[in-house]
């Protein structure tokens, strides 16, 4: 049974890659999430063989049996991470070990086998290497990486599956928000909850996002960019957006963020921002923050900025909060000074412009 150190990837290059001229045309405006590279990484797992059949191969459709367990019981997890071009021309990943650890934590919660960290890192690095020509040159461009795993066993009984398929695909990415606005507007979900204590809120699994889509659709109907969820028990405490963590900047230099109580995804960007904020001399507090207090603090001027953060959107200012009861504006309605400063510090580290004092950036080639 192979482990993460001994299993090697077989390289099966795509025989019909996208032509260089066509690739250049596509990369002029990659958008987010709709353009993909030529290859994918793949590893199989079975209870009898463990992790095996590791390959870098042509990106193509997956052949699935209609009785594949994932289609019926949703045993599936994923990660989101980026590869960057550094200022010196090298390619790098940002804190990939943290993605590997979170992937393992999600697997434990969903009763799935844990992919060894070395295998996770090998799969991502090998895919970035073979598809290195797919980096977009647009401002802020990156190669978005999506490792994921699902139950592939052909079986309809209700139990954890005994066979799984792990893959990594890559997508050249530009900006996350299509509007290009300097600050986003968010809609307060009053009828739907993202997660509850004892649930899967801290796991990065597709079911969490599936359950949030109706609320996100409601936000779009209200001309908002994102939805913010409140706690399931009291429907009072702010938790997170549909795919991002939240921070609240107070006028005394305190930075508040909801605590990781099992219902909020432990964001890697969130953790990085907390570290950088403390280096800026800010007091960072993880504590519950009520929706009514949010509005009151914005009105009084106690709250001066709010921002969301995540791998895809990096750091994004929140300008307006809307609900069925009305709306309120945060600060001037645009990005504040601290939001911009923390974003710039993070991006400069990710891009190799600023020193990496924490060892977050892993150079590949």
From TrEMBL:
PROSITE patterns linked: AA_TRANSFER_CLASS_4 (PS00770)
SUPFAM superfamilies referenced in this protein's UniProt entry, alphabetically: D-aminoacid aminotransferase-like PLP-dependent enzymes
EC number: 2.6.1.42
Amino-acid biosynthesis listed as a keyword: yes
NCBIfam families given in the database record: ilvE_II, PRK13357.1
PANTHER family from the UniProt entry: BRANCHED-CHAIN-AMINO-ACID AMINOTRANSFERASE, SUBGROUP IIII AMINOTRANSFERASE
Name of the featured protein: Branched-chain-amino-acid aminotransferase
The organism of origin for this protein: Parasphingorhabdus flavimaris
């Amino acid at each position: 049974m192979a482990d993460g150190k001994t299993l090697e990837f077989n390289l099966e290059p795509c025989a019909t890659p996208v032509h260089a001229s066509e690739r250049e045309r596509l990369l002029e405006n990659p958008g987010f999430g709709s353009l993909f590279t030529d290859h994918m990484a793949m590893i199989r797992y079975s209870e009898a063989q463990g992790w095996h059949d590791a390959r870098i191969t042509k990106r193509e459709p997956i052949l699935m049996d209609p009785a594949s367990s994932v289609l019926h019981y949703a045993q599936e997890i994923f990660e989101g991470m980026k590869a960057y071009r550094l200022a010196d021309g090298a390619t790098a990943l940002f804190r990939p070990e943290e993605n590997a650890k979170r992937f393992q934590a999600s697997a434990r919660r969903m009763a799935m086998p844990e992919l060894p960290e070395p295998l996770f890192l090998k799969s991502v690095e090998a895919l970035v290497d073979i598809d290195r020509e797919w980096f977009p040159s647009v401002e802020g461009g990156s190669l978005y990486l999506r490792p994921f795993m699902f139950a592939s066993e052909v079986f309809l009984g209700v139990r954890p599956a005994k066979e799984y398929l792990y893959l990594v695909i890559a997508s050249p990415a530009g900006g996350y928000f299509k509007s290009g606005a300097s600050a986003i507007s968010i809609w307060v979900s009053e009828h739907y909850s993202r997660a509850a204590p004892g649930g899967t809120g801290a796991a990065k699994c597709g079911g969490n996002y599936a359950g949030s889509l109706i609320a996100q659709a409601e936000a779009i109907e209200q001309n908002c960019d994102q939805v913010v969820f409140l706690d399931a028990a009291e429907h009072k405490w702010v938790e997170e957006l549909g795919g991002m963590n939240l921070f609240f900047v107070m006028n005394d230099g305190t930075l508040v963020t909801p605590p990781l109580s099992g219902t909020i995804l432990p964001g890697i960007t969130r953790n990085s921002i907390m570290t950088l904020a403390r280096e800026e001399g800010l007091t960072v507090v993880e504590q519950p923050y009520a929706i009514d207090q949010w509005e009151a603090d914005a009105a009084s001027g106690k709250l001066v900025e709010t921002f969301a953060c995540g791998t895809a959107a990096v750091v994004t200012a929140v300008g307006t909060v809307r609900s069925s009861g009305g709306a309120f504006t945060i600060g001037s309605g645009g990005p504040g000074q601290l939001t911009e400063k923390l974003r710039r510090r993070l991006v400069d580290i990710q891009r190799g412009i600023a020193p990496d004092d924490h060892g977050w950036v892993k150079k590949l080639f």
